[in-house]
Amino acid sequence: MDALSALAEPHRRRIVDLLRLRECSVSDLVATLRMSQPAVSKHLRVLRDVGLVSARVRAQQRIYRLEPGPFAELDAWLAPYRRLWTHHLAALERHLDDGTEQP
């Protein structure tokens, strides 16, 4: 599985969204997401296996955080598509601007 496949799952995207704001323990994620601990741990394992998150040990807890590398790779992969849409949106904006100038 790769990062894009891992992020296709909605619960994993929610976990990533939370970790974007701050590092979290499994219990923090369980409480916020209102999911079972085994389910959260399963999703974290997938995210960790593809390198999107890492964990450090603090006392009896694992604290999870995002890893920037895979996100940079995803951003690079998306860049050509972003340029394509930017081009199309700019053309649409020009078309709409041309249409509003007519009486």
Question: How would you describe this protein?
Answer:
With 103 residues, the chain is of the alpha+beta class. It has one domain (3-100): Arc Repressor Mutant, subunit A (Orthogonal Bundle), CATH 1.10.10. It has 5 helices and 3 strands; from the N terminus they run ααβααββα. It has a 3-stranded antiparallel sheet with strand order 1-3-2. The longest helix is centred in the last third of the chain and has 33 residues, at 68-100. The radius of gyration is 19 Å and the shape is elongated. The model has no long low-confidence stretch (mean pLDDT 91).
Keywords:
103 residues, alpha+beta, Arc Repressor Mutant, subunit A, 3-stranded antiparallel β-sheet, 5 helices, 3 strands, elongated
Quick structural summary:
This protein has 103 residues and is α+β, with helices and mostly antiparallel strands. The chain has helices at 3-7, 10-21, 26-33, 37-49, 68-100, and strands at 24-25, 53-58, 61-66.
